[in-house]
Amino acid sequence: MLASTIVQALASMPCPGLAIEASMAASAPKLKYTAVTGFFKHSDEPAIPSFESVTLPGLGLIDRAYETDDTFDPRREKQPWERFVHYLGHLNSPGAAADKAVAYKLIYAARHGEGYHNVMEAKVGTVEWEAHWARLDDDGTTTWSDASLTPTGIREARAIQVFWADAASSFKLPLAPRHYVSPLARCLETCELAFMGLAVPDAPVPPFKPIIKELVRERLGVHTCDRRRSRTWIAENHPLFAFEDGFAEADEMWNPDVRETLEEHAVRVERFLDDLFANDRDSDIVSLTAHSGTILALYFAIGHPEVRLAPGTVVPVLIKAEVVE
């Protein structure tokens, strides 16, 4: 064990960026990530291809007791979200984690709204999409290369903002102080519509400064809808977004001939979690605007049932990180 607590272990980790050297990775402590269930209804939804989850009121937090209730809310007067957030803070407190080498984060994971690629796949069918159309930029009428949101997708993204405003007010659900987002256009647009200008009566709203992360992109390769545009284009069209260190001008990850597997995608998402737990130690809760494939890869990496999400859906994912030999 490199350290007695996960905080010390993470402090010794190199930042797992895209160009991390193998020797550095080998010397860093290994973290195991696990989904923590029993807090949200989403964990028990059907993990079958025919089912798509939607955003639940209050994100489906289960009204249950916590070991911290007796001191924090002895009269049981507080909202379930207030008690949960206090309990999450307790789990990450030095006293609770001193001998465990563990840490916890709650991710608000959002799938982007409907994109033009989704419409085309629905039109021609998945078999034809995979075999032919996904490799093209357009059909002469509609473009889906780095697909943008459709009018329906725009409405779905705006509905996310309505959800956050209502949930923060009605359920005392805390807004995430930090936003992470895929560099693909449909995610940038969804994140912008969901959070920019968000207002909650009598509650502070964190500044809108999302951080663009290559590691949370959709499954890489072959499909032109998953090939991103240039850094210059993103900066010009989404000036409020911040780039992670080392973000390249051109897309260096997408390959026209090789499609990433689910297992490879999950490894990439684990590298994002390494980055998140190592470098965002002040936030118990973060938001992630990404893709259906990325969220499935996250579930695969942490052992969560692979529940599929409808476009514009937000789900909570509680993750435990622990240092292993």
How would you describe this structure to a colleague?
The structure is a single chain. This protein has 325 residues and is an alpha/beta fold. Helix content is 35%, strand content 14%. The strands form two sheets. A seven-stranded mixed sheet has the order 1-9-3-7-4-5-6. Strands 2-8 form a two-stranded parallel ribbon. Helix 8 runs parallel beside helix 9 (185-195) and helix 11 crosses helix 12 (292-302). Residues 1-5 and 12-26 have low confidence and may be disordered.
What is the strand and helix layout of this fold?
Layout: H1 6-11, H2 22-27, E1 30-35, E2 52-53, H3 69-72, H4 80-91, H5 94-97, E3 102-111, H6 116-124, H7 126-131, H8 151-170, E4 179-181, H9 185-195, E5 211-212, H10 231-237, E6 242-243, H11 262-279, E7 285-290, H12 292-302, E8 308-309, E9 314-324
Parallel strand pairs: 2-8, 3-7, 4-5, 4-7, 5-6
Antiparallel strand pairs: 1-9, 3-9
Helix pairs in contact: 8-9, 11-12
InterPro entries: His_Pase_superF_clade-1, His_PPase_superfam, PGM_Phosphatase
GO cellular component, one term: cytoplasm
GO molecular function, one term: phosphatase activity
